[in-house]
Amino acid sequence: MANAMHEMTKVGYDNLVKELENCTGPMRLEIAARLKEAISYGDISENSEYDAAKEAQAENEDRIKEIEEILRTAKVVDADDLESEGTVQTGVTVRVKDLVYDEEMTYQIVGNTEADPFNGKLSNVSLVGEHLIGTKQGDVVEFSVPEGTAKYEILEVL
């Protein structure tokens, strides 16, 4: 993940900033309190509360480093500032028709850290997202997927 650019929407960036603030503030304080309480029980060599708190501390510190790296290398895309000229790119919403299953779907193309396909947010580096990037209304994209072939028509770039 080091030195990779992380393209994301402004909302995704702001959410990561909030998560970082939580991890470096309230979460650290909560873990410190758990550690203090576990230490108060005495011998920590067989203290499961202490072990759990240390594990939570390590996970929190790892997440802090991960978020800091993502934010350091972030390229924020604000949908309001995009001049997409009808081209699918990170930050835009696109309406497509799945020509294999004859279904229409609407997706927002977002950064990898904010993807939520079940809620219509496709990662720009996902299999579908990568194939939609750069297309325009009327284009048809076809590509291999584990189940066979996917084929999408771009109905509208919003």
TrEMBL record:
Stretches assigned to the Transcription elongation factor GreA/GreB N-terminal domain: 8-76
UniProt-listed Pfam families: GreA_GreB (PF01272), GreA_GreB_N (PF03449)
InterPro entries in alphabetical order: GreA/GreB_C_sf (IPR036953), TF_GreA/GreB_CS (IPR018151), Tscrpt_elong_fac_GreA (IPR006359), Tscrpt_elong_fac_GreA/B (IPR028624), Tscrpt_elong_fac_GreA/B_C (IPR001437), Tscrpt_elong_fac_GreA/B_fam (IPR023459), Tscrpt_elong_fac_GreA/B_N (IPR022691), Tscrpt_elong_fac_GreA/B_N_sf (IPR036805)
Transmembrane domains' residue ranges: none
Keyword field: Coiled coil, DNA-binding, Elongation factor, Protein biosynthesis, Transcription, Transcription regulation
Single GO BP term: regulation of DNA-templated transcription elongation
Record's function text: Necessary for efficient RNA polymerase transcription elongation past template-encoded arresting sites. The arresting sites in DNA have the property of trapping a certain fraction of elongating RNA polymerases that pass through, resulting in locked ternary complexes. Cleavage of the nascent transcript by cleavage factors such as GreA or GreB allows the resumption of elongation from the new 3'terminus. GreA releases sequences of 2 to 3 nucleotides.
Family: Belongs to the GreA/GreB family.
Name this polypeptide is given: Transcription elongation factor GreA
